[in-house]
Amino acid sequence: MEETTAHNQKPGMTARFIWRAIVLLILAATVVGGILYWNKADHGPQAVQSSAQQQAVPVHILTMQPKTVPLKQVFLGQTESSQTVEIRARVNGFLESKHFTEGGHVKAGQLLFSIDPRSFQAALDMTKAQLASAQAQLERINQQLKRYTALRQSGSATEDELNELQTDQSVALANIELEKARIVQTELDLSYTKVESPIDGLIGMAQKDVGSYVDNTSGGLLAVVEKIDPIYVRYTVSEQDMLQAKRMAQSGETNQPGIQDMRLEITLADGTKYAHTGAISYTAPQIDTNTGSAVVRGTFPNPDGELMPGQFVHVNVEGVERLNALKVPKGAVIQNPTGAMVYVANDSMKAEIRPITLGPWQDDMWIVESGLHPGDKVIVDQIMHLRPGMTVSQAPDEPAAQADGSQPKSEQ
C-alpha cells in the first residue's frame, strides 16, 4: 500500500521541478539579453539631438528693414448736413398751397408755401392811402406857412400863429415818415406770404397741410431743408489716441503735417471708396467728459448727392507717415492670451521665439511697435511645424522675402 502511494507522488514532483527550471531559464535569458542590449546600443540624448540638428526645416525668411510708410488712422464717422434750416411761417394766415416734392431737392429762392395774402394786401393798401393823406396834409400846411410868413412880414399875422404852423409842418413830416415805415412793414408781411427756400438742399416732409392755420410762434414750423453739398462727416477721436499721436510725433516716430494739410478719405458701408477727399474743418476745443473723446469734423464735396445725412462711414486720415517702421505679415504672428510673438532665425539658423508688441494694421501687414530690430530674420511660414531650438534653412525654391512688403507664395 505504501509503495503504491510513493509511486503515484513521484510523477507530480518531477513535473513541478521541470516547470521551475523552465521559468528560471526564461528569466536568465531576459537578463542576459537586456545587458547585451544596453551595452551595445547608445541611447543617450546627444545622438537624438544631433539627428534633429541635421534635419533643418526649410522656411521663408523676412529680413527686417525700417521703412517710412503712410500711417492710416481709421475712425467710424457719420455724415450730416453742412447747413440745416427750419422753414417757419413769419406771418399768421392759412396755407393756400405747397410747391415742392417732399424729400426732393430744392433751390435757393424756390417757392415752397403760399399763405393767404389778402389781409396783408389790404393792410398795404391802407398804409399807402395813409401816406397819401399825410403828404396832402403836409402840402396844405406848407401853403398856409407860406401865406402866414408873408402876413407876418406885413404885420397881419402874429409870431405865435407862424410858430404853430411850423410845428404842424414838423408833425406832418413825421407822419409821412411813419407811414413810409408802415408801408415797408406791410410789404414785408405781404412778401412773407410767399415762403421760399433760403438754400439749396434736400427738403423733408411738410409739417403743415394746405388749409392749416399757421402763425409765427414756436408752432409755425413748416419744413426743414438740409444742405448736402458740401456735406459734413463727424467722427470722434479718443483721448488715448490723441495722447499716443502726440507722443509719437514728439519722439520722432511719426511725421505729422498740420491739420489743414491732412486729407480725409471715406469708405461707405458696402466697402466702396467715396470718389472725393475731404479736409478737417473743425476740432473740438475740449474732451467730452462723458465719452472721453473729442469731436472732429471733415468737409467733403457732394456734387452728385451720393452722400446723405445720417450715413455711417469709415474715415481714413491721410498724411501721417510712420518713420522707421518694421512690418511683419499676418501669417508670421502667433497670438495667444499672453500676447503676440514671432519665430526669429538667429545667427546659427535656429528658431527662437520673440515676443512682440503689435501696432496698427497697414497694407496687409502688422507694424511692430517693439520686440524686433532692423536685421532680424523673421520666419514667415511653417510656423506650426517649428519648435524653439529647431534648425531652419532658407527654402530653396524662392529667395528670402524683403521688408518692402513682398511676400513668398503661401504653402498649400
From TrEMBL:
It comes from the Bacteria. Residues 324-383 form the Multidrug resistance protein MdtA-like C-terminal permuted SH3 domain. This is Efflux RND transporter periplasmic adaptor subunit. Belongs to the membrane fusion protein (MFP) (TC 8.A.1) family. The keyword Transmembrane applies. It comes from Oceanidesulfovibrio marinus. Residues 230-318 form the Multidrug resistance protein MdtA-like beta-barrel domain. Residues 84-223 form the Multidrug resistance protein MdtA-like barrel-sandwich hybrid domain. Residues 124-151 form a coiled coil. Gene3D superfamilies: 2.40.30.170, 2.40.420.20, 2.40.50.100, Helix hairpin bin. The chain crosses the membrane at residues 17-38. InterPro entries: MdtA-like_b-barrel, MdtA-like_BSH, MdtA-like_C, RND_pump_MFP. It is found in: Cell envelope. Residues 392-412 are annotated as: Disordered. The keyword Magnesium does not apply. The lineage of its organism: Bacteria, Pseudomonadati, Thermodesulfobacteriota, Desulfovibrionia, Desulfovibrionales. Keywords: Coiled coil, Membrane, Transmembrane, Transmembrane helix.
